[in-house]
Design brief:
- The protein has a single domain (37-241), classed as Rossmann fold, CATH 3.40.50.410.
- Helices cover 39% and strands 19% of the residues.
- It is built from eight helices and nine strands.
- The strands form two sheets. A seven-stranded mixed sheet has the order 4-3-2-6-7-8-9.
- Helix 7 (188-194) links the parallel strand 7 (177-182) and strand 8.
């Protein structure tokens, strides 16, 4: 997880693949953006809730999510600018928290069950992210490069090759920044086939989910304070390990 230029920007136009996937958001979204016209920094969490996460791993992940919210709320500007969505993949890929600002983010109580449909989760995340960016554009809201943050303790149990291609193409054109984190016995080789070459996946040291989410919140806070057009240097993550 290296330095990243994370600056507010508005894409001039969508590529056709993204345009086809967009769902325009109107109505309530217009009220939301009128009340809070701040630039947005979207982060969608892709969380593995497969059966192998049962017990201590899922419990620590739930605690980490609560720390994520607490840390974001400690910064009034980040609370207005950072938007969080949570998409889980276990029995199926499911959006359990739609994009909302940090002040209104209610961490879900995750339960571990099922397999690991990583490809379906990434595909759904891209649809949701494209729809949210379209809502920003329709309402004249500037936004930072969104983050897709995936955490898994296994390997895909579905076809993931097309999703991997979409991730790499999206990264290459600056549509989002993708981060992959492996937990316990995660197959980092498979995760590396999904992650962009310039940002290979890392492995969580034990079950330090709280440290991971504190780092993530600090990164979001740093990005949300950035001046338009200025690069941002992120703090080195102290929660990763190089041990096999």
């Amino acid at each position: 997880m290296d330095e990243n230029a994370q600056t507010p920007y508005v894409e001039s136009e969508l590529v056709e693949a993204e345009r086809d996937a967009v769902t325009t958001t109107e109505g309530f979204a217009g009220v939301e953006f009128a009340e809070n016209p701040e630039p947005r920094c979207a982060c969608i969490l892709l969380l593995d809730t497969s059966g192998s996460m049962q017990g201590t791993p899922i419990a620590q992940l739930n605690l980490g999510l609560k720390s994520f919210k607490d840390e974001l709320l400690a910064d009034p500007l980040a609370a207005k600018r950072v938007e969080v969505a949570v998409l889980t993949f276990g029995e199926s890929a499911r959006l359990v928290v739609d994009f909302t600002d940090a002040a209104n983010f209610d961490p879900p109580a995750l339960v571990a069950h099922g397999l690991t449909p990583t490809g379906a989760a990434i595909a759904e995340a891209l649809v949701q992210l494209n729809a949210r960016k379209e809502a920003y554009r329709n309402n004249g809201i500037a936004y930072y490069r969104p983050w897709i943050f995936l955490i898994t303790d296994g390997e895909p149990t579905d076809a993931y090759e097309n999703a991997a291609q979409q991730v790499r193409e999206g990264e290459a054109r600056g549509a989002f920044s993708f981060y992959g984190v492996g937990v316990n016995d995660a197959n980092l080789q498979k995760l590396a086939e999904i992650a962009p070459p310039n940002r290979p996946p890392v492995k969580l040291d034990g079950l330090r989910f709280r440290d991971l989410f504190v780092w993530l919140s600090k990164s979001m806070r740093t990005v949300s304070h950035a001046t338009i057009g200025a690069p941002v240097t992120l703090e080195a993550p102290g929660w990763i390990t190089t041990r096999a």
